[in-house]
Structure formats: structure tokens, C-alpha cells
Amino acid sequence: MASLQIDYHSDLKEVQSDEALARLLSDAEQRAPFDRLAWWQGLAEHCGMAPLIAVARSSRGTAVLPLSASSGHLSALSNWYTFRFRPILDGDAPLRDLARDLARRSHRVTLHGLPDEDQTASTLAAAFGAAGWLVRREVCDTNRILPVAGRGFEDYLATRPGKLRTTLKRKTGKVVARILTRFDAEAWSQYEAIYAESWKPEEGSPAFLRAFAEAEGAAGRLRLALAHSADNPDSPAIAAQMWTVEGGTAFIHKLAHREAAKPLSPGSVLTAALMRHVIEIDRVELVDFGTGDDPYKQDWMDTQRPRFRLDMFRPWNPRNWPALGRIGLRSLAASAKRG
């Protein structure tokens, strides 16, 4: 039997100092921001999350499950900035052993934003189920994506809805787009000013977002775009977007425009400019618009993927009985309604 070692880290400096773990969770190994130690460090430092990194290692592989601890109920170490959540598995990862050991620390584990196009949700559900947890799975969100499929920008644009193509034809000449591939403090200040005047809710953690943008800029992965009125290109920007590019994917993190500039459709013009850039210059294979099924995302993206929530309970722990009772009552009510 392969030797097994299970550790829990609430201090992320311990993870950083573990050479093998730090390498596994580094830029060199992980091709999306949400899978890296730096992302979890940002959540802990700027978003007030209490990390608990669960690590199971054997001679055959490693399983890392980034969690957040709260009164015995563990949840995913993620928030509204995270497009999707998944464990980091290397080799023949001892995920089932980790799920079994977690029963010593928690009566309930809730993971949300899980993909299943890579079998993440199914693999986790099977591992926790085999370890004696009661697993409840449900769809919790939608992820809109664009598989580029070898198309050039003009071919892609020809497949967009007629209303969007008409808007771009009428408005593109009225807006000047500028795309930066490195962090620029002045450009970021303009982004923050635009966001404050947009339809968006108050930013959850401006410090987290800026630190992330600075790091991505230093790594050459940032695409920070500003739009100006063509009639007055030296005036303050009227729209801004933040994307990152890596591993063949462009991630659309943030977009906003000043409400007063809405007649110019600067957001649409800026999205088109960035689409052209990532398709023709970065040569990405996929564009990921994150979570949420807003109608404007459907105009730009071709398809959607579900995101799942797994709620795992220790069935005989009394602390879970109220929640399990509520779930049972909702299921009965839904069955009665269908009947």
C-alpha cells in the first residue's frame, strides 16, 4: 500500500515554503489564475477569507483541496472573482483518502462553482460518497464560453446577432480603443473611476483586483483596455475592461462603462476590439466570460457550461440534521408540485 500523508495548512506561508507544493501550485504548472497559490493568497489577504489548504500525498500522487474554514463547515476557497473551483490533482491523487480524513475536521463541506466538462464535480462526488459522506449535487450557475475553433475575427463576427453587428458598424468609428498588455497605474485609476460611474454594484475588493492586475501585468498576461470618445480622445476614458490571457484561454474578468456614454455603446466597441486582439494576436482557442447568464454575454459567446454545487454532509452528525430536514422538506414540496 502506498504511504499516505495528509496535512492541513491555515498559514499559506507553509504552503509557499513546501518546495513540491509551491511548484505544483505555481504559474509554471497551472494554466488558469484560480488554480494557483497566488490566487488563494490574494483571497486571504484582501477578501478576508480564512484558508485551510487540505493536502493528501502518497507515492502515487497529490491532491490539494483549497478550503475556507468557518465553525466546522468547510467551503470552497473562492468568491465572486473565481470563475470556477476545482481541486488540484497530480498523478493518482488520493482524493478519496482526503475526503475520508476531512470527516475528522468537519461535519459539512460545501463546494460551489465546480465544472464537470473535466469531470471535476463527478470525481469529487464519487470520492466523498465513497468516503461515507451524503452528497447532494445541483446546478448553481452558468459559464458562457466561445470556442474559437480556428476562426479569424471577421469570420467570428459574421456569426454574431444582427443587432450587435449593426451597433458595431454604427459606433466603432465614434470610439477609440486602447489595449495595454502591462499594468499602468493611470489606466487603472481610469478603470476604477469608470466602474464607480457604471451600472455595476460596488466593487467587492478593489485591493484584490488591483493586486491581481499588477501581477498579471508583470507576467505579460494582462489585457487592460480603455475606450475614449473619438471626438475627444484626450478626455477621460468612457469604458474599461480587464481580461487575462494564458494557456490558450482569454478570461474576461471585468467590464464597465460610464452611464453617460451609453449612447456610444463603448462597451460593445471595446469588447469587439479585445476579441480581435485575443483571436488574431494572442491566438487563443477559448474565450471564457465567467459566470452569470446575462443576455449581453449570449451575444458574444457561442455556448454555455453548467457549474455545480456539491453539499456533503456527515449523515449521523446532529449538526447537519436541521439542514438535511430543510432539504428533505423542499424535495417533498417539489415532488408534490410536480405531481
Automatic annotation (TrEMBL):
Transmembrane segments: none annotated. It comes from the Bacteria. The keyword Calcium does not apply. The keyword Transferase applies. Gene3D superfamilies: 3.40.630.30. It holds the Pfam family Acetyltransf_6. One of its GO terms (molecular function) is transferase activity. Keywords: Transferase. Residues 185-298 form the BioF2-like acetyltransferase domain. InterPro entries: Acyl_CoA_acyltransferase, BioF2-like_GNAT_dom. This is GNAT family N-acetyltransferase.
